[in-house]
Design goal:
The structure is a single chain. This protein is mainly alpha-helical. It has 3 helices and 3 strands; from the N terminus they run H-E-H-E-E-H.
Length: 84
């Protein structure tokens, strides 16, 4: 299953969370880009966020954010040297 634009928007929201502190949430204002507002609402509907406008990660949301951020770290790293 390829990443759809909606899933990419949701992953970008999950990437914004500071996993070092569970006390840091997100507040997505209604004036944010429509795709950001919609992605946040979908994450809430899926049970990953505590509030429709962000809030905190649920337990499932934390798992998703950890995996999303790990994948981003791997994919954003420098390419490995070619094997000779």
């Amino acid at each position: 299953m390829p990443f759809t634009p909606d899933l990419v928007d949701e992953l970008n929201i999950l990437a914004r969370f500071d996993l070092a502190s569970p006390l840091h949430g997100l507040k997505i204002h209604k004036t944010a880009a429509p795709e950001v507002v919609a992605a946040t609402q979908r994450l809430h509907a899926k049970g990953l966020l505590t509030q429709i406008d962000g809030g905190y990660l649920t337990s499932l949301g934390r798992d998703a954010a950890e995996n999303a951020q790990a994948a981003l770290t791997i994919l954003d790293s420098l390419p490995m040297a070619a094997h000779g």
